[in-house]
TrEMBL record:
Residues of the Alpha-L-arabinofuranosidase C-terminal domain: 291-481
A molecular function GO annotation: alpha-L-arabinofuranosidase activity
InterPro entries attached to this UniProt entry: Alpha-L-AF_C, ASD1_cat, GH, Glyco_hydro_b
Record bears the keyword Endoplasmic reticulum: no
EC number: 3.2.1.55
Organism: Paenibacillus spiritus
Keywords: Carbohydrate metabolism, Glycosidase, Hydrolase
Name this protein carries in UniProt: non-reducing end alpha-L-arabinofuranosidase
Subunit and interaction comment: Homohexamer; trimer of dimers.
Residue intervals passing through the bilayer: none
Family to which this protein belongs: Belongs to the glycosyl hydrolase 51 family.
Top enzyme category: hydrolase
Reaction equations catalysed: Hydrolysis of terminal non-reducing alpha-L-arabinofuranoside residues in alpha-L-arabinosides
Length: 488
């Protein structure tokens, strides 16, 4: 393997490390928002432990309020005194009553507390152009206007800064079951009235394709590419099939290998959607925004099937590392990615139960990888040994490298094999490096996960399997592991 430390291949936007919080199950309510009167320790109604955990991840951007929920969310129901807010049924997610206690003001305050940028997704499926237009006015207009005055009456004098705005979500499915031709026209119309007030500049994100729907991307880019800044793409890693999902735990080695293969599929999807985007946007002005990714398993037994609550094991850690490596590789086109979802839903970094919290293996990978945020992406030249288990041979090693502003080099390595270690020799070119340190996340049990009873079963540890001499890095990568090395 060669690491070309002097060859920058672009910049890894920190927004690739974005998150997503939907009004779904116990993500917003219980997971983030408990209200000021809760017995659970909170800061202005937000769980203090969750704030601390998410802050520690250096979350750059948070997407809200959905997801499918976005296309039936009516923002005016979520402002003003909480007791008076209209209640609604969350028809997508468990049919539960949504009391709208967490609305626009609460979301922006959450972003302030997390020191991250907001990304709001508007309602195209069941909302009007006027409703979307007025939401943007409410949030970002500084002068005198019906919406800005209403915001002030609700306690917020200054407009908020809002850059990322999604015009609908999954409009091929839960967001209206539209054809791309129809959505492209709606996108053009709705986005027209999302105005740039004062010096606030929206980065407008069109609802993109589902998985490998290349016709959707082609149509959107052709008909509406010049009106957008970003196009979203959703792809979940689902062992089994959409109809017959498998469990988060209790998997065998074949399930492990299948999951690795499905995670790697993200590379092909980005490559092929990007090739279409390149035809219409060779300058790569329009970002491919992977605003939903992660594992999707059967929900934990005994939990509400509409809540999408699942455990998270070492296998999820590998899925996370593989995805981040792929996003880095495509950083010229992938301007943002958002893991689904931040707390208690799907591949969550944080799980809660009552006043307890656990950090999942996915959390630890995100934390270990956060050193790559905003770095120069470096070229790695290598042929991975192969991992064959079941039908499909896969590369055994997924890797990525970057350099930060101080010249430190970071190399992340994922060993996808459930059973074989790998000995790697890496020639570091174009940089004087004298020392290497590292951290590893692994376990002898492929199903290792953290629970409320045993929250520290799998955690990052110091890695001592790497050495550096005369620009040659040697590294023994254990099976089923994620490693982040720092060379200086
Ligand atoms: O993340 C869960 C759901 O998955 C989202 O609401 C939807 O956009 C996607 O289908």
């Amino acid at each position: 393997m060669k690491l070309k430390a002097d060859k920058s291949k672009g910049r890894i936007s920190r927004h690739i490390y974005g998150h997503f919080a939907e009004h779904l199950g116990r993500c917003i309510y219980e997971g983030i928002w408990v209200g000021e009167n809760s017995d659970i320790p909170n800061t202005e109604g937000y769980r203090t432990d969750v704030l601390e955990a998410l802050r520690n991840l250096k979350i750059p951007v948070l997407r809200w309020p959905g997801g499918c929920f976005a296309d039936e969310y009516h923002w005016k129901d979520g402002i003003g005194p909480r007791e008076g807010r209209k209640r609604m049924v969350n028809t997508h997610w468990g049919g539960v009553t949504e009391n709208n206690h967490f609305g626009t003001h609460e979301f922006f305050r959450l972003c302030e507390l997390l020191d991250c940028e907001p990304y709001i997704c508007g309602n195209v499926g069941s909302g009007t152009v006027q409703e979307m237009s007025e939401w943007v006015e409410y949030m970002t207009f500084d002068g005198e206007s019906p919406m800005a005055d209403w915001r002030r009456r609700n306690g917020r004098e200054e407009p908020w800064r809002l850059k990322y705005f999604g015009v609908g979500n999954e409009n091929w499915g839960c967001g209206g079951n539209m054809r791309p031709e129809y959505y492209a026209d709606l996108y053009r119309r709705y986005q027209t009235y999302t105005r740039n007030y004062g010096d606030n500049r929206l980065y407008k994100i069109a609802g993109g394709p589902n998985v490998d729907d290349y016709h959707w991307t082609e149509t959107l880019m052709r008909e509406a590419g010049r009106f957008m800044d970003g196009l979203s793409l959703h792809y979940y890693t689902i062992p089994g099939s959409w109809e017959q999902k498998k469990s988060a735990l209790g998997f065998d080695e074949a399930d492990w290998a299948e999951t690795m293969g499905k995670a790697l599929h993200m590379d092909e999807l980005i490559t092929r959607h990007s090739a279409i985007m390149d035809q219409y946007d060779p300058e790569k002005r329009v970002g491919l925004i992977i605003d939903e990714w992660g594992t999707w398993f059967l929900c934990e037994p005994g939990t509400n099937p509409g809540f999408l609550y699942q455990q998270n094991s070492l296998r999820d850690a590998l899925v996370a590392g593989i995805h981040l490596n792929i996003f880095h590789k495509h950083c010229g086109r992938v301007h943002m990615a958002n893991l689904a979802q931040a707390v208690n839903v799907l591949q969550a970094p944080v799980l809660t139960e009552g006043d307890k919290l656990v950090l999942t293996p996915t959390y630890h990978v995100l934390e270990m990888y956060s050193v790559h945020q905003d770095n120069e992406y470096l070229e790695l030249v290598f042929d991975s040994p192969m991992y064959t288990h079941g039908s499909q041979p896969l590369p055994q090693i997924s890797a990525t490298a970057s350099r930060d502003g101080e010249g430190r080099i970071y190399l992340s390595l994922c060993n996808l094999s459930h059973c074989d270690g790998a000995s790697l020799t890496i020639q570091v070119e174009g940089a004087e490096t004298a020392s290497v340190t590292g951290r590893i996340l692994t376990h002898s049990d492929l199903e290792a996960h953290n629970t409320f009873e045993a929250p520290d079963r799998i955690q990052p540890a110091a890695f001592r399997g790497a050495s550096l001499a005369n620009g040659l890095l040697s590294c023994a990568v254990p099976a089923a592991s994620v490693i982040v090395l720092e060379l200086s």
